[in-house]
């Protein structure tokens, strides 16, 4: 993993994030936006953050299900920390840094990255389909965003159909084997495909989408309480609008490929909030910054904490597989293995002497 490039990318993303927040603040008129923050009912903040945690809990359930599907066995506590560590990579371009989860899994289980990385793809795909479902009511009610959402749905389903068609997929893999550059990675492509085929069959895919609908509803409700905190009257219409705005903005951010959807997701939240909820630029800017802090930046802080925990707590550090297996053996067995190894070495030396 090219850690230096990822580290540099994160630094650039942080600078870009600061610029985005500055632009939003200037657009919303800083004094008026600060007044909106001052009038925010902060009693809603624990509810908002709690609903964000509901999203992470649901996504962890899906992560655990995918690990089970691929028969990757890891301690629940380690699995949770690996999953949360992936949140620290939220501001890498296209979330490519989430491959950190596969890298960590390899350290703890020896599962090849090519075997576990399809989990990242399946997570993104099922989350995207779940967000499309959540946005569907708004797409029908407000007639906005259909031109963007329909191509995303078609591309996603087309990818699933290709993966599920083993004859076609294996033929494409054989073509890759014959190509000068790609042929060197044919074995990795094959492992990646087999895992993707296991995860993206209709039954596990529909189950994952169902889990995604429940989990992402948490963040949509969190956005509703952001509006409530800013003094906007409660109504079922506000719940629908909050769900639509957050779902569409998340999809726009993902489709843009920008780190954490910076700029694209923020702009979508701000624009749709002013279009559907309030004409006040100050309230729109405050709502945008609040929901982004309570989702993107809150998750990033949790991810950094989980990654630091994995790296610093001695009991949680990865142990090489050979040493771990030796540690699990009774002392007599360990000595027996050591004596056998010495005997084998002596036999080899005697043979060479002859």
UniProtKB/TrEMBL annotation:
Topology class, membrane = Multi-pass membrane protein
Composition bias type Polar residues, residue spans: 331-354
What stretches pass through the bilayer? 9-28, 34-57, 78-96, 140-163, 205-226, 282-308
Keyword list (alphabetical) reads:
Cell membrane, Membrane, Transmembrane, Transmembrane helix
Q: Where is this region: Disordered?
A: 327-354
* Compartments (UniProt record): Cell membrane
In terms of InterPro entries, this protein maps to: L-PG_synthase/AglD (IPR022791)
Q: Which GO terms describe its cellular component?
A: plasma membrane
Q: What is this protein called?
A: Integral membrane protein
Q: What is the native source organism of this protein? A: Ktedonobacter racemifer DSM 44963
Source organism phylogeny: Bacteria, Bacillati, Chloroflexota, Ktedonobacteria, Ktedonobacterales
């Amino acid at each position: 993993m090219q850690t230096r490039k990822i580290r540099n990318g994160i630094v650039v993303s942080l600078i870009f994030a600061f610029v985005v927040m500055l632009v939003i603040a200037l657009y919303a008129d800083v004094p008026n936006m600060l007044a909106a923050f001052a009038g925010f009912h902060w009693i809603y903040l624990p509810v908002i953050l709690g609903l964000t945690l509901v999203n992470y809990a649901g996504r962890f359930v899906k992560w655990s299900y995918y690990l089970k599907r691929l028969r990757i066995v890891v301690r629940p506590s380690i699995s949770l920390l690996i999953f949360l560590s992936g949140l620290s990579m939220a501001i890498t371009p296209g979330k490519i840094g989430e491959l950190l989860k596969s890298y960590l899994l390899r350290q703890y289980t020896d599962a090849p990255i090519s075997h576990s990385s399809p989990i990242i793809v399946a997570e993104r795909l099922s989350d995207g389909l779940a967000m499309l479902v959540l946005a569907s009511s708004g797409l029908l009610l407000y007639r906005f965003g259909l031109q963007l959402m329909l191509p995303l749905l078609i591309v996603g389903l087309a990818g699933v159909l290709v993966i599920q068609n083993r004859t076609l997929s294996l033929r494409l893999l054989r073509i890759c084997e014959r190509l000068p550059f790609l042929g060197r990675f044919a074995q990795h492509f094959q492992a990646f495909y087999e895992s993707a085929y296991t995860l993206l069959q209709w039954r596990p895919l529909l189950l994952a989408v169902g889990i995604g609908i429940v989990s992402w509803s948490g963040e949509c409700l969190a956005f509703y309480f952001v509006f409530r905190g800013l003094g906007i009257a409660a109504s079922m219409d506000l719940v629908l609008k909050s769900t639509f705005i957050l779902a569409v903005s998340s999809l726009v951010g993902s489709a843009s490929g920008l780190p954490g959807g910076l700029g694209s997701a923020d702009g979508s939240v701000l624009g749709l909030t002013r279009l559907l909820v309030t004409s006040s630029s100050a309230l729109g800017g405050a709502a945008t910054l609040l929901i982004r802090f309570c989702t993107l930046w809150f998750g990033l802080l949790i991810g950094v904490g989980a990654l630091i925990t994995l790296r610093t707590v001695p009991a949680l550090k990865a142990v090489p597989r050979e040493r771990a297996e030796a540690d699990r053996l009774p002392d007599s067995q360990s000595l027996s293995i050591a004596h056998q190894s010495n005997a084998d070495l002596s036999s080899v030396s005697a043979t060479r002497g002859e």
